[in-house]
C-alpha cells in the first residue's frame, strides 16, 4: 500500500462503532481467504480500494489488516502491498477426542455450549447484512455436500465459525479455531459408525442449523440462543445413540 495513493477517507458507517467495523472488514477478508477467493500469494486490494469497497475509514482498514497480520494470514510489504500468506497448521491446545469414550465427546459439546449459545445471541444482535448472507451460503454449502454424500465435517465447522464471526467479536472465532477438528466431535467417529447413521441424521442437523440461522437473520436474540442450545443438546443425544448403535 503506497502512501502516495490518493486519500479517499470515507466517514464510518453510522450506528456502528469502530471496533465492529474492524471486525466486519477483517471477518469478510478472512472468509475470502478461508474460502479460497484469495489464494496464498494473492495481493489484497489497496488501502484506498478497501476503503471504498467497505465504505469505512482508512483507520478501520489499517486495523483490520493489522488483525489479519497478527493471526498470520497476511504479510505486509511496505511500499508494495498486503499479500495472503501460506497457511500454517496451528498447534491445538486441546487433547484429542477419545473416540472410545462417549464422555469425551460430551465434554467437547458442553464446552461448546458455554461459548456458542452466547455467540448465537450476540450474532442475532450484531450481524451485518454481509454476515447474514455468509451464514446462508455456509448452510447451502453443507446442503450440497449432504446431497452428494460427501464429507461434511469441514463445512459444518465453517458454518459455526460464520456464526462466531457474526458476533463481531473476533475472540469467538479465535477460541473455536483453537479447538480445531475437535470442534465437530463426529470427526473422531470411526467411519463404520458414521456410515451406519440413520438417513435422517444429517437432515435433522440441518433442520437445527436452519433454526439457528433463521433466528440470527430475524435478530431474534432469545430464539438464536435457544436454537443453538437445542442443536448442541441434540448432538449429545445423537452421539450417544451412534456409539451405542441404536
TrEMBL record:
A Pfam short name: FCD
Record keywords, A-Z: DNA-binding, Transcription, Transcription regulation
GO molecular function annotation: DNA binding; DNA-binding transcription factor activity
Domain HTH gntR-type residue range list: 19-87
InterPro entries named among the record's database cross-references: GntR_C, TF_FadR/GntR_C, Tscrpt_reg_HTH_GntR, WH-like_DNA-bd_sf, WH_DNA-bd_sf
Protein name: GntR family transcriptional regulator
Taxonomic lineage of the native organism: Bacteria, Pseudomonadati, Pseudomonadota, Gammaproteobacteria, Salinisphaerales
